[in-house]
Amino acid sequence: MNQPKSTRRSFLRGGAAVEALAAWADGAAVEIRLAEPTGGGYLVEFSRQAMATTFQVLLNARQYPQGADAAMTALDAIETLEDQLTVYREHSEVMHINREAYAGPVAVESRLFSLFEEAARLYDETGGAFDITAGPLAKVWGFYRRQGAIPSADDLAAALDHVGMRHMMLDAETESVQFAVDGVEINLGAIGKGYALDRAAELLAAAGVEDFVLHGGASSVLARGSRNSSDAKSTATADESKVGAGWQIGIGDPQRPGERLAMIDLRDRAVGTSGAAFQSFRHQGRRYGHILDPRTGWPAEGVLSATVVAPTAAEADALSTALYVLGVDDAEKLVESRERTSAILVVPTSRAGEVRVLAFGFGEGEVMLPGDA
Asked: What is the mean pLDDT of the chain?
């Protein structure tokens, strides 16, 4: 699955302000920036609260007579998926699996089983940096209820004993799952929103809607087709002249809310961003973020935010978490090994208030950094 290797691009960013365009939630920073509408090319928006965030469907106005009904059907599906995937409702299917899968095989709804298989592939591909069985770690660190605290060595070791996809046995013939040890817990927090966007996109496409953006809070975006469809190229403003006819997605600064670090031209792919800026706690002068390395049990360090562009929103979400954990060198290798995948990593430097932004895997015109003419 090799793609043509792209040269890594980077720039340093200090304290100078840029246009305030980012939307923020839970430490992630992704926002949609759209070309100014011309000739009546406005957008219509439909939104719904689900999965502790706001999901949005954005359509070109008057393009699709069936657009409103299709958007509401897609949002209804996201609400239904939350009821299946969440670990915060005792009646959800995931919670049923967590309770029963050690006692014996548990049959899994077909699409959810496919998601488990995808998670297993991503676990192998990332060397365990992405792991849906890391639920016990989130609990022992207190992030499950957003009450962070450093666990004791014994408690952390006990949690790690229950983490790892090796404990999750998938039977494709019966579409069932069984846990090898007691205490394994599935948590789809790093892939669930993206999966929901992928499912919603299927419904929109089935209804004949080809140009749209789906937004899952501030961390997940999926785009199909173009802004203003055939008019997209003609509506691009001067600073967008080096990007294509897709939807313009701004990537925010993880340290400065409201500031933008990069712009991605997104078409028929998805973006996922991971960061720990706003889910963290301090202990003895040190900050501990909520993104945990499943291999060690400790919060990942060295990256401020990781943004991934991938073919599906589930992949983008999962890989953004994995790249945040892996760090720059291993992240770049992983991106280079995948088709239609690219990434932006924001990392600290030795100078206070300064960051380095690294972009790799992008094709010509797919990303704009502040230094680009």
From this structure: 84
195 Cβ contact partners less than 8 Å away, ≥ 6 residues apart: 81, 85, 115, 188, 313, 314, 317
CA–CA separation, 215 and 267 (whole Å) = 14
Contact 30, 252 (CB under 8 A): yes
What residues have CB less than 8 Å from 173, skipping those under 6 apart? none
Three-state SS for 3-22 is CCCCCCEEEEECCCCCCECC
Where helices occur in the chain by DSSP H, the ranges are 67-85, 93-100, 110-125, 135-140, 153-160, 192-206, 313-326, 328-336
Indicate left, alpha or beta for 156 from its phi (over 0: left) and psi (-120 to 50: alpha).
Answer: alpha
CA distance 260 to 268: 23
Cα separation, 72 vs 57, whole angstroms: 9
Burial group, residue 282, by CB count within 10 angstroms (0-12, 13-18, 19+): exposed
Each residue of 254-273: pLDDT tens digit?
877 777 888 999 999 999 99
Distance of CA 208 to the CA centre of its chain: 26
Q: Are 38 and 233 in contact (CB under 8 A)?
A: no
Q: What are phi and psi of 5, to 5 degrees?
A: -70, 135
Q: How far apart, in whole angstroms, are the C-alpha atoms of residue 268 and residue 272? A: 14
- Looking at residue 105, its pLDDT comes to 98
Instruction: List strands edge to edge, sheet with 367-368.
Output: 24-25, 28-32, 247-252, 260-266, 367-368
333-349 pLDDT, tens digit each: 999 999 999 999 999 88
CA angle 122, 206, 49 (to 5 degrees): 65
- The full set of domains in the chain, from first to last, is 9-80+195-368 (3.10.520.10), 83-179 (1.10.3980.10)
**Amino acid identity of 328?**
V
> What pLDDT is recorded for position 316?
97
CA gap 138, 168 in Å, rounded? 18
Which residue matches tokens 């712009």? 263
